[in-house]
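Letters spell out the chain; backbone shape is given numerically. Take this protein:
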Amino acid sequence: MVCETKIVADEHDAIPGTKKESMMWGSPAAPGAEPKDVRRDAVFIREFERGDQKEVLRIFHEGIMERIPNTAFRGIWQQPRTQFIYAFLTGSCFWVAVLDGCVVGIVAAQGQEDDNTVELRRMSVDSRYRGKGIAKALGRRVLEYAMRNNYAAVVLGTTAVKLAAHKLYESLGFCRTSQSEDYRLPGMSRSPLERLFFQIRHSRYRLQLREE
């Protein structure tokens, strides 16, 4: 399994459903170092390093809080660390987006050998750096990973309420396959009040890379 890949602008058309853009992103030549040929105002994607943990947890927590009602996810301050560790289970890769020397986005990919798919997980971008194409760069890294490792499709599930998130998945080539109006999050008691006031919509998406 190959976690580390490099994507350059001229290769974008090889990924189904994606469009070529001028942004450059790739892997650093050495841990913690930016590639010498990448501008300071360009985004590049590299594998997670231990020193990234503080910023990664902050970005992940911010993303989670935007997707769910506070009272429906009890123990939220403990959940990010637990779910963050989950990203490092066997068959997973975890990347960060770096801009101007700062970690500004995260994404994970977990291979599912039973159906030969990759699940895109934990994608989130620092709210101060949105609108710069960072989420699309992270998404394409997962697609490249899936193609390099000969997976048939990439799938994801999301409770995002913002239309922009769904448009992002569609711009990457994903198609919605299902939607639930009564999704249950960890920490929800399913009490009558929670069922009445905290109904959460969960959508599943799939991007078919090749036929089995």
